[in-house]
Amino acid sequence: MDTLVLLTMTGLGLGALYFLIASGLSLIFGLMDVLNFAHGALLSVGAYACWWAASGHLPGAGPHGAGFVLAVAFGVVTGTLAAVALEVGVVRPLYARPREQVLANVGVGLAVPALLSGIWGSDARTFPVPDALSGTVTLLGARVPANRILLIGCALAVLVGLRVLLGRTRAGLVVRAGVQDRAMVSALGIDVRRAFTLVFALGGALAALGGALGGVYFGEVDPGQGTSLLIYAFVVVVVGGMSSVTGAAAACVAVGLLQQFANYFTTAGLGDLAVVVLLAVVLLVRPRGLMGRLT
């Protein structure tokens, strides 16, 4: 029983990390029809900014208590600004040229990890995990790492926040309307470009948050971390439905649990193969994913 609880909570924690990354990816594609292959770069930027701040380089920030919260906030803000710069400088001029847009995003996704390697080296850096998150808590008799609980809580908060934003706020309605008929929304005096930049900024903030909490989960950061996690983010976005945040959440739960149970009950590493098999089955049975619209 203890093992099942531990595996379940670890799988849900991993799924929550995937969701923090995939939610921004799904949001940008669903609302802007942009496949952001530079999303992993935004994650790496947020992770390294949080690591840099928590290591004592930012006044007031540190690996404990409020100092760590400040470090995470710094990472999220840095990722958000990087996303705005990416949208304004790279994506916006190429909205009418999707092929070039994809190539430009791929280029940014390759250049940023190389830049991080050039500054801090290619070796992994130990992430300063707070003491409160490096221990365990007792749940149904099992000792569960505390950082899993944090990840699950953050993922649930993000899911609720995105659903409220998209369905209950003026900003969400403006963006959705702009996707359907950009010319009509612009004729009403609404700056659609600003709304799209807001969406990209939100996606970058979520990626950066995933990068910061990914450092807590793995205990280290490295330049290629964002690229490797982006692969799983794309998998869950496809499985859940390319434009569905709710579908991405469901897919993240399935992928995280499948990986953990497969790795434990079979040979280590077969969890990744199981995820690929799940992706293939979903594409064959339901090509549009679990949910095919932005919900």
Automatic annotation (TrEMBL):
Keywords from the UniProt entry: Amino-acid transport, Cell membrane, Membrane, Transmembrane, Transmembrane helix, Transport
Pfam families to which the protein is assigned, alphabetical: BPD_transp_2
Keyword RNA-binding among UniProt keywords: no
One cellular component term from this protein's GO annotations in UniProt: plasma membrane
Membrane topology reported for the UniProt record: Multi-pass membrane protein
Biological process per Gene Ontology, one example term: amino acid transport
Spans traversing the lipid bilayer: 6-27, 34-54, 66-90, 102-120, 149-166, 195-218, 230-257, 264-285
MF terms (GO), sorted A to Z: transmembrane transporter activity
Keyword Electron transport in record: no
Subcellular location: Cell membrane
Family: Belongs to the binding-protein-dependent transport system permease family. LivHM subfamily.
Protein name: Branched-chain amino acid ABC transporter permease
Originating species: Streptomyces montanisoli
